[in-house]
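Shipment paperwork, digital attachment
Item: protein structure file
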Amino acid sequence: MRRYCSPAHSVQIGYWRFGERKVSREGVIMRSQTVLALVAVVVGLCCTQTDADRLRPQGYKRMVERWQKYYVEFEAEVGREFRAWKRDGVMSTRFRELIDSVRISPEERGYELRELPTAREGPFCGICRGFGGSLLEFRREGATREEVFETAAELCAMLDLQAPDICRGLIDLNIDPILYIIDNRPELPIGSVCAVVFQSGACDLNDENFSSWSVDIDPNGTPVTASKSGTAQRGPNDLKIVQITDLHFDPNYRTGYNADCGAPACCRESQGIPENPAAGAGPWGDYRACDTPWNAVEDIIDRAAEDHPDADFIYHTGDIIDHGIWETSIGYNVRSINQVIQKLRTSFPDKPVYNILGNHEAHPTNVYELGEISRPDFSTNWLYHLSADLWSAWLPRATEQTIRLGGYYTALVRPGFRVIALNNNDCYTFNWWILYQPDALRNQLQWLHDVLLQAERAGEKVHILSHLPVSSDCFSVWQREYRRVLERFRDTVSAQFHGHTHKDEFNVFYAAEDPQYAVAVAWNGGSGTAHTNVNPNYVVYYVNPETYEVTDFESYAYNLTAANLEPNQRPEWFRMYSFQEEFGLSDLSPAGIDELIQRLGTPDGREELQRYWEYKVKLADASLAIGCDESCLLNHLCEIVSNQADDNRKCQELSDAFFG
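Attachment content:
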């Protein structure tokens, strides 16, 4: 988990030599999802989701000022050594030293950038600007696709970001759209590239090409003068909604195969059977970096259908495809999507299923077309047309136009109640097309605003479905504009539902101008996969039939350790907890949830906060064995209240009171 530093706790920094100066070496750890975020946007290498620590330690401003000086020096030195390598065909001793200073161990590959503390922000930005800037200029000076590919693959392997075959696979899948962006955005500076990818205070974005766009907001809203309150208690006539998310079905999963392989996805047929049986994949899944076998996908869907026949409808919030991100294809993704949607159709024959797309559904992973692009082979239309066809059995015909346009839609569920299903994967910081035309992100958000305005005028209440939590990995300008829309229509939006993080968690939104007021809550359904260190789960929400606000939810899970001991029996699902019962809330309104947060942020609330974390990881044995100390707990508390990358006010407020 991401660790937040409190003002009372100093940041321990190792040293990393930039030129002849010593600076923080904390940025060595990285997980490479499309490998090497530093070279990322230049050659199609990408790390996993990045979301730098929001709580700034004492001295952070001075630290950033020092980093800014080191960036210039490091970028210049790497550039000199890189050019000499390309000119002479031989790496100098100094260039190898620079590479060695950031090489990571196989164990460190399992980290995600979002799990790194603030002290690592600067070094990562420096690496990105150094190595990434060199590759950017290499292409602009005339390097061919093959030359960029081979250079990036060699650096990826030397840095031990992934095994050489995974490096080559990731680069090959991503290099063409990224070269297209570089070639068609000759003015794109490496500083802006790194700032978009890393989105941290140490890698600041000062580029109006990325930040100047905005959504046109209807001016008839009212100012926020209090937290939104008044949600009813759970009642016998509440609607019942089942959320299933992040199944990550892996057709290549094989019981007994290597679960400790070091790749982004393990337990796969190509990775062989390990000598140590303890490293073998379990029959129902694995806590390590493994996705979900088909028998477990079937079981979670069947269990939700069997145990909740009175559910009114289903929210399926994306990420069907596995984490084998170095070897996806359109055909591969289509087969998995078809198989899962057909299973949902079979198990819920008489219930509406509202589907949205996850970042893994695209090919390459995360890459959703934005703006006017002249290459048809870069289009995401194959996925949008497939989705329109597969989802049509559950949706009115009027939804087809926007699904085929961009994978999003709205549907009137019943008089007075509407669902808006977003495809907010376009805002993911590893969607390369943000770098090409960032203001294209405005289009879907403006559509969202306009639909909400119509709903407001019609007296409708709305649920918003989107795969990415707004707090998690969305481009900061998109976050800013979404918050503006949400705040304007806070009385129309009754609830939001997300996936992506694989955690059973929630987020609270506060007024931008006066963050003492809570205006909205977003719920996360966890994951059907156990990747990584969580139990599989689904969530059942109880929703007031007049206000359509969530009055309670129950999370259902099974213990993966126990399930794998009985390969021939279905897992024993259990109700993990009722949110309302567990935390004794007055209600689940933004005001009621804010009261809980304030309680969790005091020393007296530490036991409750510990329980929140345990449920967040879904009582998974692997996570419970690691534990979560006080700094870790503060981190998770801060994640609840943070919804914009450059807004740390609520997190800082909680931190000031956390240690008493």
